[in-house]
Design goal:
About 30% of the residues lie in helices and about 20% in strands. The chain has about 90 residues and is of the alpha+beta class. The protein has one domain (about 15-85). The strands form 3 sheets. It has a two-stranded antiparallel ribbon with strand order 1-2.
């Protein structure tokens, strides 16, 4: 299993939140996508752009008290995740 969501970068499993994986059409846990991005075999926000996802992640990190460096690193990482790679080539 990939260790982070290939859409937003969130860990798929954490000690605090437990299993954060989304679900496939058959109800099985996704090995690539988190429950905030993916459910029942489809993206929750199918029209979301990379720039919108960067803003969503940035706001979530601010709410969690993350500093500027962590937020900058997350913003730079997103284009390299599977969902966004094809859009940035």
């Amino acid at each position: 299993m990939k260790k982070q969501c290939q859409s937003c970068g969130m860990p798929l499993q954490t000690k605090k939140a437990g299993d954060c994986r989304g679900t496939e059409k058959d109800g099985s846990p996704s090995e690539k996508w988190c429950k905030l991005c993916y459910a029942d075999g489809a993206f929750i926000g199918p029209d979301c752009t990379l720039e919108q996802m960067q803003d969503i992640v940035d706001k979530a990190l601010i709410e969690n008290g993350s500093g500027k460096l962590m937020r900058w690193m997350a913003r730079k990482q997103l284009p390299h995740l599977e969902r966004w790679k094809t859009l940035t080539k």
